[in-house]
Amino acid sequence: MKFPPEFNRICLALIIILLILWFIHLCYFTPLVPFAPPGDYQRDAAIIYNILKGNLGRDPTYLKEVAFYPYLYHLYMAGIHIITGIPVQTLLVSYPYLVSVPTLTMILLGSYWLFSSTMVILVITVAALLSFPWLRDAFAQATHSIILSFGIFTLTLSIYFKATTVRRFWLYILTGIAVALTIQTHLVAGMTISAVIFFQISYWSVKTGGSF
After folding, report:
1. By mean pLDDT, which of 66-80, 111-125, 170-184 is the weakest?
2. Which of 30, 128, 191, 196 gets the highest tally of CB atoms within 10 A of its CB?
3. Is residue 144 a contact partner of residue 45, using CB atoms and an 8 Å limit?
4. Dihedral sign, CA of 137, 142, 146, 148?
5. What angle do CA 23, 26, 29 make, to 5 degrees?
């Protein structure tokens, strides 16, 4: 399946939009904005402690009912605690850096895989680094998995694009895994990337007479 040249431009536009949303999100949860919400700091801590006890998929704040929200972020924090031994409360205070660094890495990796352009990577790096001055204590009190989903969303998009370009079966499998991780990180991001893939495949299947 061959994509038109404008597909790269669409992908670049999506990544730029994600970076803008990330920047706005960072600005929203800072002392610069007095009406920033308190976030789910203590609830996140309770969920992480519950995971460390071996109770996966359960929400301790609601009588241990099955958790229908994505909790990959909590698994990530619990994993860091197990590996490093750093207290959970300390990890949550360091949330801006622990989440922003892997997010930035995934955005850069996905962007490079899509475009292989030094200039594009440089522009995206500068745009992302502009967000770091806004990482304040108030942001640490408003932990949200949406930022982590920005990086996974971009990486998933790049893997899918690569799979449809080189047509390697293992890349399609990797795309499925990436989509699952996106859904497990943030439902809206997961539904978005799933819809993009579904409608794109449907469009090209109809246009090519059913051949994929």
Report:
1. 111-125
2. 128
3. no
4. positive
5. 150
Q: Which two tokens stand for residue 175?
A: 């795309």
How far does CA 145 lie from the centroid of its chain? 8
Helix axes 72-84, 95-115, angle to 10 degrees: 110
Q: In this structure, is the dihedral angle defined by the CA atoms of residues 100, 36, 31 and 23, taken in order, positive or negative?
A: positive
What does the pLDDT look like over 112-168, one tens digit per residue? 776 666 665 666 666 556 555 554 443 444 446 666 777 788 788 888 888 877 778
3-class DSSP state for residue 65? Answer: strand
Residues 6+ apart with CB under 8 A from 8: 114, 115
Q: How many CB atoms lie within 10 A of CB 145?
A: 22
d(C-alpha 150, C-alpha 128), whole Å: 12
User: Is residue 123 a contact partner of residue 167, using CB atoms and an 8 Å limit?
Assistant: no
Structure-token match 């972020």, residue found? 73
Residue 23: other Cβ atoms inside 10 A:
15
Burial annotation 115-124 (CB, 10 A radius, 16+ → b, else e): beeeebbeeb
